[in-house]
């Protein structure tokens, strides 16, 4: 009887949270669109990921003003509150709903004005906070009571659903829950996370539709891309791990208190100055990743632009975190990996022209993401969903991701042994 009651409570919570989190993601997407519309005068699509048509000074001012406004909000918000991570919420720490939503909306606004950080952390934190609040409210009703383990599952699933509702990627949202947050795979966890992510995706698609997030042209991957994936796995496993370590170091030294008042505006000033003449650095890295995936010809100008974009995106993103900004690192990882994939794919393509530079970028993005997030399955399925790849990509991406995460784990274990 008790088991039946718990199953019913969990089923109701799964559906309700799927709907609520789905609308939360939809609202955050709308806020992003409105911010980009009013600050940068454009509507972001996969064909126009950044606005290259406005005056350079316009981009500079947008990034700078966005940084100053976010600085003020984060300063006053954190005087009596420190943002609670999803992993801490899973361990029982409370995510105050009102303050968390102010924090989440500020992240979206910050990215929407063109500052360099990922936007995917915000919907995940919103989903987790909503699920935690729902679980605690239900404690007042005995017939809807949820046990502690199911509460953890709901928080993790809601975080994944938040991601799914923004990027229209239900499998990625599910795997994010299972592989990174909940870390237990059974019938119960798979069912809850998948159902919640699918519902959130359906609601998020009301605004976003089902278009691919990145345009990749031909989706047919040749078997000749497998040797390239092996080589890329060895290299991107290393670079992705370095980026992960950089994010960790920046997060540990993140500016707080009065320091944020000069560090974050200065960072936004610098990011705006770069964005004035190189707009692809703006936002979550979608513009840079798409630039890499659009590469069809190789010359010094193209290579110079991609190299500059790679260095600038990584450095500015890390300093954004260090200087007090908040946001995700998934999409910046995709951007960095895509550019590295193009560079390493150029000599390979001369011998095997059937492998395109776009495919090199996609493989690189997935492999870098796997190492930087320590989530091979999420990295694999995310590129499938956001690029709408077909089954031919499974072999090169699967092999490459396995090698990348293997190299990353080996590096981390070797570093731990030397301490």
TrEMBL record:
Membrane among keywords: yes
Transmembrane segments: 12-32, 52-77, 153-178, 190-210, 222-243, 264-282, 302-321, 328-346, 352-371, 383-407
Topology of the protein relative to the lipid bilayer: Multi-pass membrane protein
Superkingdom field: Bacteria
Subcellular location, principal: membrane
GO molecular function: chloride channel activity
Pfam assignment, any one: Voltage_CLC
GO cellular component terms, semicolon-separated: chloride channel complex
Keywords annotated in UniProt: Chloride, Chloride channel, Ion channel, Ion transport, Membrane, Transmembrane, Transmembrane helix, Transport
Subcellular location: Membrane
PANTHER family given in the database record: CHLORIDE CHANNEL PROTEIN CLC-E (PTHR43427:SF6)
Protein name: Chloride channel protein
Organism from which the protein derives: Limosilactobacillus reuteri (Lactobacillus reuteri)
